[in-house]
Amino acid sequence: YAQTGEIDGELLRSMEQDLKVAKDVSVRLHHELENVEEKRTVTEDENEKLRQQLIEVEIAKQALQNELEKMKEQSLKRRGSKDLPKSEKKSQQTPTEEDNEDLKCQLQFVKEEAALMRKKMAKIDKEKDRFEHELQKYRSFYGDLDSPLPKGEAGGPPTTREAELKLRLRLVEEEANILGRKIVELEVENRGLKAELDDLRGDDFSGTANPLLGEQSESISELRQHLQLVEDETELLRRNLADLEEQNKRITAELNKYKYKSGAHESSRHHDNAKTEALQEELKAARMQINELSGKVMQLQYENRVLMSNMQRYDLASHLGIRGSPRDSDAESDAGKKESDDDSRPPHRKREGPIGGESDSEEVRNIRCLTPTRSFYPTPSGWQKSFTDRQQMKDIRSEAERLGKTIDRLISDTSTIITEARIYVANGDLFGLMDEEDDGSRIREHELLYRINAQMKAFRKELQAFIDRLEVPKSSDDRSADEPLSVSQMFQPIILLILILVLFSSLSYTTIFKLVFLFTLFFVL
Fold first, then answer.
1. Which domain holds residue 460?
2. Are residues 248 and 371 in the same domain?
3. Where does the SOGA coiled-coil domain start and stop, copy by copy (predicted)?
4. What is the rounded end-to-end Cα distance, in angstroms, of the chain?
5. pLDDT value for 401
6. What was the pLDDT predicted at 366?
7. Do residues 517 and 405 share a domain?
8. 20, 147: one domain
9. Do 21 and 170 belong to one domain?
10. What is the pLDDT of residue 372?
């Protein structure tokens, strides 16, 4: 081997291969041993249940035997009741004899129970010795928990150490459960014996003195001694249970300490990544929501333009004294004008609405500002308000109240968005994830959101004032009616407020676009 190095290398490779095979076999055997232990615990639980059932059956059997003996004694007494003097003597002796027999039966029952408990304790001791032997095997192969290096392998794999601790913990818990059940059974038996002794003492004090009082006191003293023995055994079991619970707590603490040491490094590495991923997901969700809302804006702008043109056309027609629906087509409105009032028509034709980016004239603005309120004053035409007019006023009031609720909901949503954005910015500053450009854009967005929220609150106050001014007229012959009022006329101040914000605002195009989008949502919702 010293002359050629190839033979040494082959030998090392073969030894490494054998070592790997041995490790695999040991791991597989360990898993099989765990499965066998689980099956064994299941069978032990089943055996314990069967033992308890057997004890209950024996108790019931003993009770039936006692009842049978009592029935036999009663039958014998009935047969021998012909001899009066004998019966008188027996009547004097029967209460004490029955009590003594009952006490003897109870004593026999207690002795049987004590024998069963001793057998159980012997079995438990055997199982404990076997478990300790298996635990010593584990320690000899895997090493002790407190030792720095186990004996089986250098350091030992963490899975085997954890499996060993779990196995020990499970064994201790099973022993604690078994002892707890036994303690409960002994306490129940102890209470029953105490109750019987109290009954016997009461009978002794209430009855008269008899010649068998000494024997009864001796039997009672024997019962007390056996009861004391049972109580001592119960106390011993309680102490054992307390020791096992302390051992269980100690093993649990060691297992938690080992888990904490093994998982501390992984948790420290993945903690920051989890936070950054959560923040990125929230940012993506917010951007997707903004994109969806901007898509709705493009769809609602066209409807807004159509409604604005219809409102302006209706304002012009009502100002000139022409009754026409804002939803009529251009051809129908022109034909109606030619047939009905050619004299009242102005010499030149006015346009129905602004084209492109034009703004309305001052006259049209004044007309529109006066449109909602001038219908509350009498007109020279002298029309009577009918049921349809009152219904229209009720519809207008309900529509205005619904719009006010929508504005309140939008104000609360905007406040929520502002607070969430503030929290997100604070988190971004904390983790250092925000650039300078992102910081500036988010500051501008925050300012825009504050302005929008303030404008929405002001508009809500104006709408509330308008609702307070709006009253549904009552049907009376004395009051003169005025022109019927449409829903579009009632919302002309809202449209005028939006136009003023758009035309006279010094904000950027992005800000104007967002303002138009938010106020358009008022009418859609």
1. 365-524
2. no
3. 99-193, 220-307
4. 92
5. 81
6. 40
7. yes
8. yes
9. yes
10. 39
294 lies in some domain: no
Same domain, residue pair 257 and 385 = no
- Is residue 424 within a helix (H) or strand (E), and if so which, with residue range? helix 387-431
Instruction: Tell me how crowded residue 69 is: count the other CB atoms within 10 A of its CB.
Output: 12
- Please state, in angstroms and rounded to a whole number, the distance separating the CA atoms of residues 330 and 328: 7
Inside any domain, residue 513: yes
d(CA 157, CA 151): 12
Q: Are residues 59 and 179 in the same domain?
A: yes
Helix axes 213-319, 362-374, angle to 10 degrees: 130
The rounded distance, in Å, linking the Cα atoms of 493 and 372 is 8
The per-residue pLDDT for 356 is 41
Instruction: Fill in the DSSP letter of residue 31.
Output: H
In a domain, residue 297? The reply is no
Averaged pLDDT, 82-108 = 63
Assess whether 386 and 261 both reside in one domain.
no
The answer to whether position 330 is within a domain reads: no
Confidence of residue 15 (pLDDT cuts 50, 70, 90): confident
The 3 state secondary structure assigned to 34-87 is HHHHHHHHHHHHHHHHHHHHHHHHHHHHHHHHHHHHHHHHHHHHHHCCCCHHHH
Token pair listed for 227: 């009861």
Residue labelled with tokens 């073969």: 14
If one counts the domains in the chain, the total is 2
Confidence (pLDDT) at 410: 79
Count CA within 13 A, CB hemisphere, residue 176.
15
The pLDDT-based confidence of 353 (bands split at 50, 70, 90) is: very low
Q: Which of 2-6, 48-52, 237-241, 330-334 has the lowest mean pLDDT?
A: 330-334
**Which percentage of the chain shows pLDDT scores above 70?**
47
- Considering the domain architecture, whether residues 232 and 373 belong to the same structural domain is answered as no
- DSSP of 361-396, one letter per residue? -HHHHHHHHHHHHHTTS--TT-PPP-HHHHHHHHHH
Give this prediction's pTM.
0.23
Least confidently predicted of 123-127, 133-137, 487-491: 487-491
Give the separation between CA 177 and CA 241, rounded to whole angstroms.
9
Query: Which residue, of 235, 251, 266, is where some domain finishes?
Result: 266
Cα gap 105→94, rounded to integer Å: 16
* Amino acid, res. 179: L
Domain end, chosen from 242, 266, 290, is at: 266
DSSP state at residue 347: S
